[in-house]
Design goal:
binds S-adenosylmethionine, nine-stranded mixed β-sheet, alpha/beta, binds iron/sulfur cluster
């Protein structure tokens, strides 16, 4: 049976970073400062509902991922109570991967030790950058040193799998700032690094600063240079790419939960705004934490909308996601026109075709979105 992943969305942040458009709220944005204790009870109620709805298809989770928002704003015992709820209702596979995202400024070595002891196996730290002036533009409230220290504390707490998230291409970032960031991230000893190009999301404070001319927009050439530098530095350090933005020190260090998204496995998202995908159907929860908690407390579905994915949509999504993986795209998924495009891209040095699969070259990884367009048009 398809592996099952469970995602838990923790919608709280101490402050909002100007670039972020994730579904997250500061205390001032929620009535009464937000009911963080009530969050655990509501998450457990949604888990009850999920287990009942899945019925005979409920099975031990292969992966669990607590993301946000800032899961580490909750006391570790709250995260463990939700994990225990998952264990009781679904079970966990042997060697299940259990990840939490952690913000450098709110995670402590004590909390990490408690999470490790309670069954978490992986921690993903939002380092973002090592240059103080870039962290300021991103509105990050931690120092670069604190992010690296959190990674070492996670290792000391016994986490075998420690990941760091980085962002490149922030306005004002120089090539040497990014080189320093890659060095600092590698020096922290992670076995996984995600390196994302900054997206200027409409409606964010950062987008408003760019619109007002206070900051320049991102520069596509600089973005491609930074991505190529990341690719080279991370692979030289033994962290090979396995998805366009993700590098791991070994196959075991790859994020199995995210691989589940990219390979269209089943996952159930718990929490406000969380998305789910089970047996070819997709749905998404109401975004506001108060509406979500009210609905689950009343025994109603928190889903705001749902869609059955028809074969054409499924095929399009598989092409879009699987071509970004180092294991490549099964050429059988392509239409005749898509196959001709793949042959052309292979001649251009953008794709490598072998054993019935198409794998992006470095040049292809730098233009992955355009490759997807060519393969699906
Ligand atoms: C939504 S955050 C949650 C993790 C945690 N709260 C943090 O900030 O470290 C997950 C990751 O998404 C990435 N991210 C968020 N917004 C982004 C944007 N506009 N452009 C590129 N990456 C972004 C960041 O690297 C971040 O670590
Ligand atoms: S990037 Fe992370 S800490 Fe910043 S607002 Fe988004 S979720 Fe919160």
């Amino acid at each position: 049976m398809t592996p099952l992943g469970l995602y838990v969305h923790v919608p709280f942040c101490a402050a909002r970073c100007g670039y972020c458009d994730f579904n997250t709220y500061t205390a001032a944005e929620l009535p009464g400062g937000g009911d963080r204790t009530g969050f655990v009870a509501a998450a457990l109620q949604e888990l009850d509902r999920a287990a009942t709805t899945l019925g005979a298809a409920a099975r031990p989770a292969a992966t669990v991922f607590f993301g946000g928002g800032t899961p580490t704003l909750l006391p570790p015992d709250d995260l463990l109570a939700i994990l225990e709820g998952i264990r009781r209702r679904f079970g966990l596979e042997d060697r299940a991967e259990v990840t939490t995202e952690a913000n450098p400024e709110s995670v402590t070595s004590r909390a990490l030790a408690r999470l490790r002891e309670g069954g978490f196996t992986r921690v993903s730290i939002g380092m973002q950058h090592a240059a103080p002036h870039v962290l300021r533009v991103l509105d990050r409230v931690h120092t670069p040193g604190r992010a690296a220290a959190a990674a070492s504390e996670a290792r000391a707490a016994g986490f075998e799998h420690v990941s760091v998230d980085l962002i490149y291409g922030t306005p004002g970032e120089r090539a040497e700032d990014w080189a320093l960031t890659l060095d600092a991230a590698l020096a922290a000893g992670p076995d996984h690094v995600s390196a994302y190009g900054l997206e200027i999301e409409p409606g964010t404070a950062l987008a408003a600063r760019v619109r007002r001319g206070q900051l320049p927009p991102t520069d596509p050439d600089a973005m491609a240079d930074r991505q190529a530098e990341a690719d080279a530095a991370l692979s030289a350090a033994g962290l090979e790419w396995y998805e366009v933005a993700n590098h791991a020190a070994s196959p075991r260090a790859r994020c199995r939960h995210n691989l589940g998204y990219w390979k269209s496995h089943d996952w159930w998202g718990i929490g406000p705004g969380a998305h789910s995908h089970v047996a070819g159907e997709r749905w998404w929860n109401v975004k506001h934490p108060t509406d979500w908690a009210r609905r689950v407390a009343a025994g109603q579905s928190p889903a705001a909308g749902r869609e059955a994915l028809d074969p054409a949509v499924r095929r399009f999504e598989r092409i879009m996601l699987e071509v970004r993986l180092a294991e490549g795209l099964d050429l059988a998924l392509l239409s005749p026109a898509g196959r001709r495009a793949a042959e052309r891209l292979a001649r251009d040095g953008t794709l490598e075709l072998s054993g019935g699969r198409a794998v992006l070259t470095l040049r292809g990884r730098l233009t992955a979105d355009a490759v997807v367009r060519d393969l699906t048009d």
